[in-house]
Amino acid sequence: MAPIARVLAALTGALATANTGRVPLKTSGDAIPNEYIAVFKQDIAVPQMKAFAESIGATRTYEFGGKLKMMYGVWRPEFVEVLRERTDLFEFIEQNQVIRTFARQTNGADCCADFL
Questions:
Q1: Whole-angstrom Cα distance, residue 116 to residue 103?
Q2: In the prediction, which pLDDT does 112 show?
Q3: How far does CA 95 lie from the centroid of its chain?
Q4: CA distance 76 to 109
Q5: Neighbours of 30 (CB within 10 A)
Q6: CA pair distance 104, 61, nearest whole angstrom
Q7: 40 Cβ contact partners less than 8 Å away, ≥ 6 residues apart
Q8: pLDDT of residue 99
Q9: 8, 57 Cβ separation under 8 angstroms
Q10: Pairing relation of β-strands 25-26 and 68-74?
Q11: Which of 16, 46, 55, 59 has the highest CB neighbour count under 10 A?
Q12: Three-state SS for 24?
């Protein structure tokens, strides 16, 4: 089966039985264009998550204790809109974003302050 046919088959598999809502798409902060994280519903088994992610070419999958399961990919927004139809699989989809952290050492260590 051609790659595009596999993707379409995977995406349309349960559309007939899915509810009429759409998977929420979250965007905030300093979004990274075309990078998305899709969080699976808790009742989706890890093997099912991995098989689906592989079938659509997701870059990575993550699983934390069998409860939190997600995949990451670089996809065009039009493709993400198709993923949003899969309410049977996903809790939400979020556009990846830049996260910045700032810290200050407050324990009085000033030995290197001249270099900062």
A1: 13
A2: 41
A3: 7
A4: 48
A5: 9
A6: 34
A7: 49, 69, 70, 71, 89, 90, 91
A8: 82
A9: no
A10: unpaired
A11: 55
A12: coil
The single-letter DSSP state of residue 50 is H
For residue 41, what are the CA distances in angstroms to 1, 32, 56? 28, 24, 18
Three-state secondary-structure class, residue 77 = helix
CB atoms within 10 A of CB 31: 15
Are 35 and 95 a contacting pair, CB within 8 Å? Answer: yes
> pLDDT tens string for the chain (116 positions)?
555 545 544 554 444 334 459 999 998 888 999 999 999 999 999 999 999 999 998 999 999 988 899 999 999 999 999 999 999 999 999 999 988 777 565 554 444 444 34
Please report, as a single letter, which amino acid is at residue 32.
Answer: I
Q: Which helix (H) or strand (E) holds 9?
A: helix 3-12
Task: Render the burial of 85-116: b for 16+ CB within 10 Å, e for the rest.
Answer: bbbebbbebbbbeeeeeeeeeeeeeeeeeeee
Pinpoint the alpha helices (H) of 13-115. 46-55, 77-83
